[in-house]
Amino acid sequence: MAHATDAPALLQARGVDKIFPGVRALDGVDFALRPGEIHALLGENGAGKSTLIKVITGVLRRDGGDLFLNGREIDPHAPAESERLGIAAVHQEAPARSTSAWLRTSSSGASRPASVLCGAER
Ligand SMILES: Nc1ncnc2c1ncn2[C@@H]1O[C@H](COP(=O)(O)OP(=O)(O)O)[C@@H](O)[C@H]1O
Ligand SMILES: [Mg+2]
């Protein structure tokens, strides 16, 4: 079996931008998630972790850059659309404690998660 980091990216973001009025939340984000990998997005409040998850899952529209799933360009406009592609986000809301968003992608509809991306904040 190939080492996880040699495998082609399951999910890839290339040069992703998201601009809100007065703030560039994402500035040319490059990211690759390969099968079986687990990534943690770490950053202070406002770093853009949630925005990246929201762009990947179609909650927010990106202003630039490209998204690929298994090498094919995707352009999710809504969470239901990304879910159909096998991308799922589980948002946790615990007031005064923590919030985190998990992204699971499963290849070809497999029920177990192929990869997990976790963004967490205090
Ligand atoms: N819906 C929104 N409207 C305007 N600004 C936003 C919105 N969502 C996030 N931002 C801004 O984008 C930046 C990144 O926010 P966010 O992705 O929530 O960061 P993190 O999850 O890392 O704390 C922050 O400056 C935040 O204020
Ligand atoms: Mg956040």
From TrEMBL:
Polar residues: compositionally biased ranges: 98-110
Location of the region described as Disordered in the Swiss-Prot/TrEMBL record: 98-122
Molecular function terms from GO: ATP binding; ATP hydrolysis activity
Classification via SUPFAM superfamilies: P-loop containing nucleoside triphosphate hydrolases
Positions of the ABC transporter domain: 26-95
Domain of life: Bacteria
Stored InterPro entries: ABC_carbohydrate_import_ATPase, ABC_transporter-like_ATP-bd, P-loop_NTPase
Keywords: ATP-binding, Nucleotide-binding, Repeat, Sugar transport, Transport
Any single Pfam family the record assigns to this protein: ABC_tran
Entry protein name: Putative sugar ABC transport system, ATP-binding protein YtfR
Species: Brevundimonas abyssalis TAR-001
Lineage, opening ranks: Bacteria, Pseudomonadati, Pseudomonadota, Alphaproteobacteria, Caulobacterales
